[in-house]
Amino acid sequence: MEEMHLSRSAAELVDRLERTGDLSDGEFADILTCGEPGFVEYLAERARAVRERAYGKEVYLRGLIEFTNICRNDCKYCGIRRGNKHVERYRLTEEEILSCGDIGRKLGFRTIVLQGGEDPYFTDERMVSIVRKLRERHPDCAITLSIGEREKESYQRLFDAGADRYLLRHETADREHYAMLHPKEMSFDHRMRCLRDLREIGYQVGCGMMVGSPYQTLSHLVKDLRFLREFRPEMVGIGPFIPHHETEFADQPAGSVEMTLRLLSVIRLLLPDVLLPATTALGTADPFGREKGLLAGANVIMPNLSPTNVRGKYLLYDHKICTGDEAAECIRCMTLRVAKTGYQVVESRGDHARRRAENP
Ligand code: SAM
């Protein structure tokens, strides 16, 4: 109904985005800022139609194991950055990680995500051992890694050990903006190099950015969209920036939920088959953020599988949700929440459409 009120030019822009993905920078900016009544709903409606053509009503779950909050990096926005002396640091043992994986598999997860800070303890040997054992125990599960920047040889060894997917947000496609968010020793070029290495090795690759990160402008977001269009990742993780009180960005405003939802819809239209999570950050910024994300074009949810005794220590930002619930409770809660949106949680690896033939 709402689209009746849209101007012809706004509707045409969305139509062209869907057909070609080829908008000018100014047109991308128009889509991100259009204030016409009903525009955001129309965008979401079109994004849902595209996601339903690619993935039907299915929502895929990823069981997230946050296995270490020790990090050698000092990213200015991140609560577990090296310089934060007020974090109680932890790392799970191999046994604990494997046991989380077993619990996840029993609960119905078919993707296990190992995420952590860049903890030097987890050398290639240790990571290979964990990945190999997970692979042996759960041959029908996808193994996703999100352990930051490593050298190509290291990524290759982990892939050969059985990892399928890798999440490494590019954070921002603008070099200067990258430098404002990170300390001098971190390099935009190396991050981009890592993404290309992962792609060349054969991983399903995820990148992404925070929405509303400090100093971010509209043209940065347009650049991000151009980067996503060119790189064509299998997965894109975006969520609002949320300040953490022990960082230099403590007093910066949080990113906008509305802009995050708009971007989810635009990304779905740009990359119809993309695996797009409605992130925990979105659920933290808005109590119904994840449901809204699904209704804007997202098709993945990443419930937490970490042991409850460490949940409250993996705090990238303030007020993070679901830090107290058992994994079984998280999955039950998310299944009900997803059902209320008209979508349905399924027990599936949920591979990217381009890569499904490899894992029938
Ligand atoms: N160390 C790995 C890496 O660099 O990819 C994985 C963990 S890292 C903490 C995961 C993601 O959390 C980052 O890529 C960043 O986008 C997001 N993040 C960190 N701090 C955040 C904040 N304050 N608000 C929202 N998201 C944040």
The overall pLDDT, averaged over residues, is 96
Largest sheet: 6 strands, parallel
Q: Hetero groups bound?
A: S-adenosylmethionine
Helical content class: 40-55%
CATH superfamily: Aldolase class I
Shape: globular
Order of helix and strand elements from N to C terminus: HHHEEHEHEHEHHEEHEEHHHEHHE
% residues in beta strands: 5-15%
In total, the number of strands is 11
CATH class: Alpha Beta
Indicate the structural class.
Answer: alpha/beta
Residue runs with pLDDT of under 50 for 5 or more positions: none
Gyration radius (Cα, Å) is 19 Å
Distance between the termini: 40 Å
CATH topology: TIM Barrel
CATH architecture: Alpha-Beta Barrel
Number of domains: 1
- Number of helices, counting only DSSP H or I runs of 4 residues or more: 14
Strand order of the largest sheet: 2-3-4-5-6-8
SSE map:
Layout: H1 8-20, H2 25-33, H3 39-55, E1 58-61, E2 63-68, H4 94-107, E3 111-116, H5 124-137, E4 142-146, H6 152-161, E5 165-167, H7 175-181, H8 188-201, E6 204-207, E7 210-211, H9 218-231, E8 235-236, E9 239-240, H10 257-270, H11 280-285, H12 289-295, E10 300-301, H13 308-311, H14 327-340, E11 344-346
Parallel strand pairs: 1-10, 1-11, 2-3, 3-4, 4-5, 5-6, 6-8, 7-9
Helix pairs in contact: 1-3, 2-9, 3-10, 4-5, 5-6, 6-8
